[in-house]
């Protein structure tokens, strides 16, 4: 009995301590109860509610003119006959560019876009025979003759010549097309084959193990393996596959497609960095909101909205424009001062708007975004032109460039999808936006007219609204959850407060209908009813956060969503957790690392519902966090050959550079993650930035023949390796100088030059195990320092050498290690193409130390780190408390691989610890046996 009591009391004590340590005290959180739940996005703070020089452009009329030009006049031989491919019959093709010759291959995307827009515009300019011919022509893009057996963007496609987005997007829009048109003889079979093909890709990329990895350039359908071109990867392909698989589930009802979609979305949910490459990531907010609304899912819509409005972390300076120029458009944000693209910008709007049907909280954000997009799309048109330049948009424009741009028929074919969403109202700046227009695979019987009206003015406006529903109707606002008008016929006036939005759902009312029946119609008609929102307040984008900085948050809930937990994290690491937020948490910057970081607030409510808010911040724990911090006046003090090489302009705010200039020497530590942060005002011609090693005099490119302007941020370690392969080999601490070099007869104007370390929190012992989980390992590739790629494939971590002139390796984060406890690093290597090696780096040292010299052996290996370092370093030079980083290196030719089963870091167990563990185990077994005997 005493033993039993001892174990019961011990168990009770453990439970109590666990509760105290891991669970917050359950007190009521301070949140605002409201029916009006709204979200804000940090990246959109500078987007104006009403654009400067706003004027409404009739995009529907322009889309009609384009489609008439395309299908009626055909003055430029836009549509042409193609050779017989894949189907054994002739097919039609459409040019991609206006100036393109007939020999250029036609894209499936262009043909699908033309058909989608024609249907959306309801033009009736094509007869049944013409439609049938165009639909049959699409079947020729199902590549059979090349042995790949899948739908691609070209008739003679080779999947290895295309990246993920080109492989995927034609199939996605083909699914959209077949939701709008009657099926052909072969269309359903093609759709099912497309869905099955991409389902198998998901399973091949880890789905069969429950974890997927799309960290590749594309997929080789002939050999059924992923491929990496060594230049870029497109992890947002998972978003495109998820959307396609979801469409397939809605069309065919097979749960396997939903399984694949879920795996892909879980992969996307793990990303803290923006995975966008071209346009597939733009569908993440819509798909996340729809899945959360219609199924039992909790995907992070707030994160995906942040991705939509920020620059990509996987494609340099690519994303949405949110400054003064081209606001709301999408493209290269610094190339030639900004180079937005028409196709991506149009697709972005059509991808985002329908998400409001499933998440009403972003009505204001989407409303002002769309107002800016429709205002700035006119940059792609020459309205004064008498030829087709005022009908066919330019492929892209450049703020500071003067290169001749091509007119893109591809972009024009998708304009109808955007144009049919919007129409003007009686109030300038207030658009009537059809939220249903670009939503696919929904039950028509349940779909009711749903429109967004956003008021960008500061004062209240009265808008004339004409219902689409015939007969008696009530107008229900999905945002405020109340009726705006009841039992009306025909036009009516809607009052909208300044800078607010309404989402009007039309509810048909029958004569004598009771309130219960009307409420049921509302319940069945509303898909967007998210009862929780959290917003980080008052922090500008990359705003400076110093010590004791108060983090203000706003929590909005309805009565049904009581808050049960609030958590603040920095770069994924929790810094505060409770249910009570009566006063702002003060961030202790002195315990953090300088540089750019991601602040996240997570709020959990009743039933497990969660919401998130994000802020990109600059942590400044020191008075001077910069390695180099030069404004224009400081740059003029750099070394130069001639006084004409540099001068001040713009009231001494800018430094005009016309020749080579060199900064004063400064110390830098390449064991950290130094970032180069430039503010470039203008340029004429190309220009470069180099890093000069003072000791050797060697110079290495940081930017080469650049034509960028604006705010440029570069990871120095990554670009030094990429632009100087086989040449750059600096490690640890060095004295260096920065060199700015305009091209011949060129100039560049700088506002500021900064270098600072992108501080990364070290990983303490309690988190070692979780850091080496497969999910974490595959995200190490986001540290762009080493010329290698890391993927999870068929149950293994595959390290691929991408260095054309040497070895490539995978590097971990830094771990806090106590050498007196005899740490061991374990690795199991399953396969190796040539050789592999393992090194350990001490933070701040200028070299690494081999744990494993290059070898071709496979198997399980264990290394005593303390012994290796004690032998390598002089006595007295090694502290017990160190931060260690590990490199697994592929010593072989370009594209060679090392396949690893697992990695481990732990401390050796001493005899006392082992004896205690064994004794406790024996006591546990004894106690269980005693209890069993007594019960018997």
Write up this protein:
The protein is of the alpha+beta class and 936 residues long. It is built from 20 helices and 49 strands. The protein has a six-stranded antiparallel sheet. Strands 28, 30, 31, 34, 37 and 39 form a six-stranded antiparallel sheet that branches. β9 and β10 form a beta hairpin. α6 packs across α8 and α9 packs antiparallel against α10. Residues 1-30 and 781-785 have low confidence and may be disordered.
Overview in brief:
By secondary structure, the protein is α+β, with helices and mostly antiparallel strands. The chain is 26% helix and 29% strand.
Write the layout of secondary structure elements.
Layout: H1 2-22, E1 32-33, H2 59-73, E2 79-82, E3 91-94, H3 108-121, H4 128-138, E4 142-143, E5 150-151, H5 164-180, H6 187-204, E6 218-220, E7 225-227, H7 237-252, H8 255-269, H9 284-294, H10 301-308, E8 318-320, E9 330-332, E10 339-341, H11 342-352, H12 363-376, H13 409-419, E11 422-424, E12 431-434, E13 450-454, E14 461-465, E15 473-477, E16 482-488, E17 492-496, E18 501-508, H14 515-525, E19 532-536, E20 543-545, E21 549-551, E22 553-557, E23 563-570, E24 573-578, E25 585-587, E26 595-605, E27 610-619, E28 626-631, H15 632-635, E29 639-640, E30 646-649, E31 654-657, E32 661-662, E33 666-669, E34 674-684, E35 687-693, E36 699-706, E37 710-715, H16 716-723, E38 733-742, E39 747-757, H17 768-771, H18 774-778, E40 788-793, E41 796-801, E42 808-811, E43 815-818, E44 823-832, E45 835-842, E46 848-855, E47 859-864, H19 865-872, E48 881-891, E49 897-907, H20 911-935
Helix pairs in contact: 2-3, 2-13, 3-5, 3-13, 5-7, 6-7, 6-8, 7-8, 9-10, 11-13
């Amino acid at each position: 009995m005493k033993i039993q009591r001892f174990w019961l009391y011990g168990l009770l004590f453990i439970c109590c301590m666990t509760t105290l340590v891991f669970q917050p005290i359950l007190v009521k959180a301070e949140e605002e109860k409201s029916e009006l739940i709204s979200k804000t996005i940090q990246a959109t703070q500078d987007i104006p509610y009403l654009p400067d020089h706003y004027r409404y452009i009739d995009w529907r009329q322009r889309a009609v003119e384009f489609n008439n030009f395309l299908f009626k006049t055909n003055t430029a031989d836009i549509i042409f006959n193609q050779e017989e491919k894949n189907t054994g019959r002739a097919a039609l093709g459409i040019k991609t560019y206006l100036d393109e010759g007939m020999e250029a291959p036609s894209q499936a995307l262009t043909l699908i876009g033309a058909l989608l827009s024609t249907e959306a515009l309801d033009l009736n300019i094509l007869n049944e025979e013409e439609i049938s011919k165009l639909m049959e022509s699409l079947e020729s893009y199902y590549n059979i003759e090349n042995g790949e057996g899948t739908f691609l963007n070209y008739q003679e496609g080779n999947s290895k010549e295309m990246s993920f987005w080109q492989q995927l997007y034609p199939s996605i829009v083909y699914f959209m097309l077949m939701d709008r048109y009657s099926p052909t003889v072969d269309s359903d079979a093609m759709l099912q084959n497309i869905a099955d093909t991409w389902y198998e890709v998901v399973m091949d990329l880890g789905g069969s193990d429950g974890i997927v990895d799309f960290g590749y350039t594309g997929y080789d359908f002939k050999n059924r393996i992923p491929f990496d071109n060594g230049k870029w990867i497109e992890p947002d392909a998972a978003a495109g596959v998820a959307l396609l698989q979801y469409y397939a589930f809605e069309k065919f009802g097979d749960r396997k497609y939903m399984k694949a979609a879920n795996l892909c979305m879980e992969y996307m949910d793990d990303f803290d960095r923006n995975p966008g490459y071209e346009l597939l990531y733009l569908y993440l907010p819509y798909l996340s909101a729809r899945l959360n609304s219609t199924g039992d899912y909790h995907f992070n819509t707030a994160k995906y909205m942040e991705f939509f409005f920020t620059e990509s972390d996987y494609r340099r300076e690519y994303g949405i424009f949110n400054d003064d120029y081209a606001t709301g458009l999408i493209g290269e944000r610094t190339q030639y001062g900004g180079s937005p693209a028409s196709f991506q910008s149009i697709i972005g709007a059509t991808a985002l708007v329908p998400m409001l049907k499933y998440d009403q909280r972003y009505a204001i954000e989407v409303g002002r975004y769309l107002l800016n997009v429709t205002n700035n799309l006119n940059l792609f048109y020459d309205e004064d032109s008498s030829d087709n330049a005022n009908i066919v948009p330019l492929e892209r424009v450049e703020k500071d460039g003067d290169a001749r741009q091509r007119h893109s028929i591809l972009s024009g074919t998708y304009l109808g999808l955007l144009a049919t969403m919007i129409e003007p109202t009686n109030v300038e700046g207030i658009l009537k936006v059809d939220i249903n227009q670009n939503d696919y695979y929904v039950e028509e019987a349940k779909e009711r007219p749903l429109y967004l009206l956003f008021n960008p003015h500061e004062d209240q406006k009265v808008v004339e609204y004409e219902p689409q529903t015939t007969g008696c109707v009530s107008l229900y606002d999905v945002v405020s959850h109340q009726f705006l008008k009841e039992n009306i016929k025909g036009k009516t006036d809607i009052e909208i407060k300044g800078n607010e939005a309404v989402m009007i759902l039309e509810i048909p009312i029958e004569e004598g209908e009771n309130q219960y029946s009307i409420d049921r119609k509302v319940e069945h008609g509303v898909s967007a009813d998210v009862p929780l929102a959290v917003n980080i307040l008052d922090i500008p984008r990359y705003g400076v956060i110093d010590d004791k900085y108060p983090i203000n948050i706003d929590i909005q809930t309805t009565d049904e969503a009581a808050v049960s937990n609030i958590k603040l994290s920095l770069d994924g690491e929790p810094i505060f957790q409770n249910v009570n937020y009566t006063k702002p948490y003060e961030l202790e910057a002195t315990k953090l690392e300088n540089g750019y970081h991601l602040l996240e607030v997570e709020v959990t409510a009743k039933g497990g519902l969660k919401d998130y808010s994000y802020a990109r911040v600059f942590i400044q724990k020191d008075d001077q966090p910069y390695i180099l911090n030069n404004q224009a006046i400081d740059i003029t003090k750099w070394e130069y050959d001639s006084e004409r090489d540099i001068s001040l302009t713009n009231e001494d705010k800018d430094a005009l550079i016309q020749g080579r200039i060199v900064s004063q020497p400064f110390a830098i530590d390449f064991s950290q993650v130094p970032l180069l942060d430039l503010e470039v005002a203008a340029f004429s011609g190309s220009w470069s930035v180099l890093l000069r090693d003072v000791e050797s005099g060697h110079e290495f490119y940081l930017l080469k023949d650049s034509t960028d302007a604006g705010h440029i941020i570069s990871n120095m370690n990554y670009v030094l390796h990429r632009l100087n392969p086989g040449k750059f080999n600096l490690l640890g601490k060095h004295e260096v100088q920065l060199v700015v070099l305009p091209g011949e007869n060129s100039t560049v104007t700088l506002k500021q030059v900064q270098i600072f370390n992108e501080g990364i929190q070290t990983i303490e012992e309690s988190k070692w195990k979780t850091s080496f989980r497969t999910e974490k390992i595959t995200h190490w590739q986001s540290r762009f320092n080493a010329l290698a790629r890391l993927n999870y494939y068929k149950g293994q971590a595959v390290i691929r050498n991408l260095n054309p002139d040497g070895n490539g390796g995978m590097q971990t984060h830094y771990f806090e290690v106590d050498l007196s406890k005899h740490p061991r690093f374990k690795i199991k290597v399953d396969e190796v193409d040539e050789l592999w090696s393992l090194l350990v780096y001490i933070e701040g040292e200028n070299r690494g130390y081999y744990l494993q010299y290059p070898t071709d052996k496979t198997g399980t290996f264990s290394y005593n780190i303390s012994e290796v370092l004690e032998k390598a370093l002089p006595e007295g030079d090694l502290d017990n408390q160190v931060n260690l980083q590990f490199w697994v290196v592929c010593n072989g030719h370009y594209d060679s691989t090392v396949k690893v089963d697992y990695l481990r870091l732990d401390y050796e167990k001493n005899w006392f610890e082992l004896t205690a563990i064994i004794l406790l185990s024996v006591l546990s077994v004894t106690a269980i046996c005693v209890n069993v005997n007594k019960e018997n």
